[in-house]
Design goal:
Elements lengths: L22 E3 L53 E4 L19 E4 L24 E7 L5 E7 L12 E9 L8 E10 L13 H9 L1 H8 L4 E8 L4 E9 L2 E8 L4 E5 L1 H5 L4 H9 L8 E3 L6 E6 L7 E5 L4 E7 L2 E4 L11 E6 L6 E6 L4 E5 L8 E5 L7 E6 L5 E6 L4 E5 L9 E3 L7 E6 L6 E6 L3 E6 L20 E6 L4 E6 L7 E5 L2 E7 L3
Antiparallel strand pairs: 1-8, 2-3, 4-31, 5-6, 6-7, 7-8, 9-10, 10-11, 11-12, 13-14, 14-15, 15-16, 17-18, 18-19, 19-20, 21-22, 22-23, 23-24, 25-26, 26-27, 27-28, 29-30, 30-31
Length: about 525
């Protein structure tokens, strides 16, 4: 896989945020995980869709002791000494007195999903593949979260970044769960680690001149400010929406109830340290403004309508869907469920452009389109049976074009054209993910770009506009789809990934090992 010998990377686990702590800091270098396993960069030529081999330098050798030369028969080491004129040292034309030694690394290879790794090999993050990359952990892992839109403006690109969000925990004890309302601030660009290679004297001088700048940069640590809201039961899924200027979060509890929470107070204290301290001191416990217990079991499917203010749809594990409509200060939930699925409803997505229309997917392997203006038992307008070979876990409706993306237990990612919904998928990627797909989301800024996350501990970013040049060939061990732009790893048991709606190219993901905030260099 690479010519150097790779060994263990002794990583430190980032500090955990305790429930009574209000402000914690990110790790300034996001490569500090409880294990290191991150594919870093596939840099694509956007004209041909082929991998640029010169950019695939992502796997580094790191040993617990100084590296030794390989015991090759020819005696070659991992480095070749050359002088500044490009001549081999000790060969005719070289000058040992005046030449400056530099280290020339043999070409490294990027790890590609599906490659076989040796027992003594591991993956090391190439930070140069990211514009920004940070990680943080919470008191308990979060199955679901959502990004809270803010008033800082759209299409932001200037660093440092600020973002707001809300997540729901999955604590071991039911009464120990919380909604975590959070503010991520002071998020700077990631500064790649300096090379371990020996520097020349000139290079050392240049590094010395940059010491002050580097020290100043390292003091700019991102901060996470949180306000907790007690939640009874693990949060299976959470979705956020402003309604009548109020910040609302809808949550699916493992106990079988769905609640709506007003986050006005916990959200307001994040920008005022004194108010935050008072919030913590008084141990405020906001209550849900509405709770529905009419589902016959717990569930995961939940989505706010983007076209009808305050309208919500929820689906449970017994196959039923209920639609909520706001009325004054409460919600009316039709007790007659929307019927059509024959097994657990896993996800729901409202149409971004057509009011009254939503889509759902199920363990019964079907994707269905519904119209809420019709009676619940007749509202199923379109059905794609056997859309996947097994359970369909997630769907997402393209915000700009008539496409739906779906991911299932068959490890396949499929794209459906609503103009020919009952036909076959218009795109399918079934050999990349090696585990069930648990999250999929279209980019809000690029209509052909989407992200998918799977139980194989990777997040893939795709651009459906990419095509491979038929005349181009690749010698890579694993053949990759032309549409694959980037693969992000380093988390265990990934649950959800979301694009930030106001910061193009930035994604946030949650997993059993914490959150990642990142922006790939090529997105």
């Amino acid at each position: 896989m690479c010519e150097g010998v790779l060994s263990r990377y002794n990583a430190k686990i980032p500090p955990t945020m305790s429930c009574n702590c209000a402000i914690v800091a990110f790790n300034e270098r996001a490569v500090i995980w409880d294990y290191v396993s991150r594919f870093s960069k596939i840099n694509w030529n956007h004209h041909s869709g082929n991998i640029m081999d010169d950019e695939l330098m992502n796997v580094e050798g790191i040993k617990d002791e100084p590296m030794e030369d390989d015991d090759d028969d020819d005696g070659d080491s991992d480095f070749e000494d050359i002088d500044e004129d490009g001549n081999d040292e000790g060969q005719p034309g070289s000058s040992n007195e005046t030449s400056k030694k530099v280290k020339k690394l043999k070409k490294k290879r990027a790890y590609l999903p599906g490659m076989q790794m040796k027992e003594d090999e591991t993956l090391v993050c190439d930070e140069s593949a990211y514009i920004t990359l940070h990680t943080f952990t919470t008191s308990a892992p979060c199955l679901s979260f959502d990004i809270i839109p803010d008033s800082l403006g759209p299409n932001r690109s200037k660093f440092p970044l600020t973002s707001y969000g809300v997540a729901g925990t999955q604590a071991q004890r039911s009464h120990a769960n919380s909604l975590i309302v959070m503010k991520m601030a002071n998020v700077y660009k990631t500064q790649p680690k300096s090379s371990d290679d020996e520097l020349s004297s000139d290079e050392s001088e240049e590094e010395d001149n940059l010491d002050n700048d580097n020290e100043e940069q390292l003091t700019k640590k991102p901060e996470l400010t949180v306000a907790l809201v007690p939640h009874h039961g693990c949060v299976n899924r959470l979705r956020f929406k402003f309604f009548n200027e109020k910040p609302l979060a809808a949550t699916w509890s493992e106990l079988g109830s769905v609640s709506i929470w007003d986050l006005t107070k916990p959200l307001s204290v994040l920008d005022d340290y004194k108010l935050l301290q008072e919030y913590i001191k008084t141990k405020e416990k906001p209550k849900p403004v509405f709770t529905f217990k009419g589902h016959r079991s717990e569930g995961f499917a939940l989505d706010w309508s983007p076209t009808m203010a305050g309208v919500l749809a929820t689906g449970d594990s017994t196959k039923f869907i209920h639609v909520w409509k706001p009325e004054q200060s409460t919600w009316l939930v039709d007790q007659r469920p929307f019927t059509g699925h024959t097994d657990s409803v896993e996800d729901i997505q409202w149409s971004p452009s057509e009011a009254n229309v939503f889509a759902s997917c199920s363990v019964d392997k079907s994707i269905r389109i519904w119209d809420v203006r019709t009676k619940p038992n007749k509202a199923n307008m379109l059905t794609k049976e056997n859309a996947h070979e097994s359970d369909i876990n997630v769907i997402h409706w393209n915000p700009k074009d008539p496409f739906i993306a779906s991911g299932g237990d068959d490890c396949a990612l499929r794209i459906w054209d609503l103009r020919n919904f009952t036909g076959g998928s218009v795109a399918e990627f079934k050999n990349h993910h090696k585990g069930p797909i648990c999250s999929v989301e279209w980019s809000p800024h690029e209509s052909t770009v989407l992200a998918s996350a799977g139980e194989d501990d990777q997040i893939a970013i795709w651009d459906l506009a990419m095509e491979r040049d038929p005349e181009e060939t690749t010698e890579e061990e694993v053949e990759l789809p032309a549409q694959l732009m980037f693969v992000h790893q380093g988390q265990q048991d990934i649950k959800e990934v979301h694009w930030h709606p106001q910061i193009p190219g930035v994604l946030i993901s949650t997993s059993a090992t914490g959150f990642n905030v990142f922006k790939p260099a090529n997105v």
